């Protein structure tokens, strides 16, 4: 069955460092991969989308890579700040699908 | 912010009672979704709609029904609430095109006692 794996353990890092979160998937051939941020008590908020034919995407301090051979996406936040503390979710979509399937998310805690 | 609102935001109900959650959008998006979010499970799709009166089941649809009589409204009904349906429910709308992103409502925290 299709599976999306994100590290269930929280990632603790020091302010100013680069945070790297991982999304692995199996039995899936996504055309798109998305990353969302979710703060406690709120709905997820879209951050970035990367297509299967793209290796890397950047937006301000965010960078996403997509390796369809490894079936993995890495999500980087450079120069992290305490305000970046949140849960980050990856979501996959098949080609022609409008139904995102979400991973369970990884909690990021940035310490001042 | 995308125009999507959920009501109610919080509800406590008794086992066996019917409950309806409402999702309202002002974006005229074709696709609307209901997810539930539980610790250890993440976001799981309950039902989705791809147009007025067009709906389909998601991963965890048992015990839930939906209706969409207008583009802007998508209702989720628990016919007879059970304690296992205690959860946070999120409605989402989907914009196609270049960004292909989902916009989520604020969530409804439902407790079945």
Task: Please describe what this structure looks like.
The complex is a heterodimer of chains A (112) and B (113). With 112 residues, chain A is mainly beta. Helices cover 0% and strands 55% of the residues of chain A. In chain A, strands 2, 4, 5, 9, 10 and 11 form a 6-stranded mixed beta sheet that branches. A 5-stranded antiparallel beta sheet of chain A has the order 1-3-8-7-6, with no helix packed on it. In chain A, strand 9 and strand 10 form a beta hairpin. Chain B is mostly beta strands. Chain B is built from no helices and 11 strands. Chain B is globular, with a radius of gyration of 13 Å.
Features:
heterodimer, A: mainly beta, six-stranded mixed beta sheet, five-stranded antiparallel beta sheet, 11 strands, B: 113 residues, seven-stranded mixed beta sheet, four-stranded antiparallel beta sheet, 0% helix, globular
What is the topology?
The complex is a heterodimer of chains A (112) and B (113).
Chain A: E1 3-6, E2 11-14, E3 19-26, E4 32-38, E5 45-51, E6 56-59, E7 62-67, E8 72-77, E9 86-93, E10 101-102, E11 106-111
Parallel strand pairs in A: 2-11
Antiparallel strand pairs in A: 1-3, 3-8, 4-5, 4-9, 6-7, 7-8, 9-10, 9-11
Chain B: E1 4-7, E2 10-13, E3 19-25, E4 31-38, E5 42-51, E6 54-57, E7 64-70, E8 73-78, E9 87-95, E10 101-104, E11 108-112
Parallel strand pairs in B: 2-11
Antiparallel strand pairs in B: 1-3, 3-8, 4-5, 4-9, 5-6, 7-8, 9-10, 9-11
The succession of helices and strands of chain A, N to C, reads: EEEEEEEEEEE
Report the count of strand segments of chain B: 11
Average the pLDDT over all residues of chain A and give the rounded result. Answer: 94
Structural Rg of chain B: 13 Å
* Element string of chain B (H = helix, E = strand): EEEEEEEEEEE
Low-confidence stretches of chain A: none
**Averaged pLDDT of chain B:** 93
Q: Could you say which overall geometry of chain B the principal axes of the C-alpha atoms support? A: globular
Rg over C-alpha atoms of chain A, rounded to the nearest angstrom? 13 Å
How far is the first residue's CA from the last residue's CA of chain A? 41 Å
Percent in helix of chain A? under 10%
Number of helices of chain B: 0
- Please tally the helical runs of chain A, counting DSSP H or I stretches of 4 or more residues: 0
Shape, per Cα inertia axes of chain A: globular
Uncertain residue ranges of chain B = none
Helix percentage of chain B = under 10%
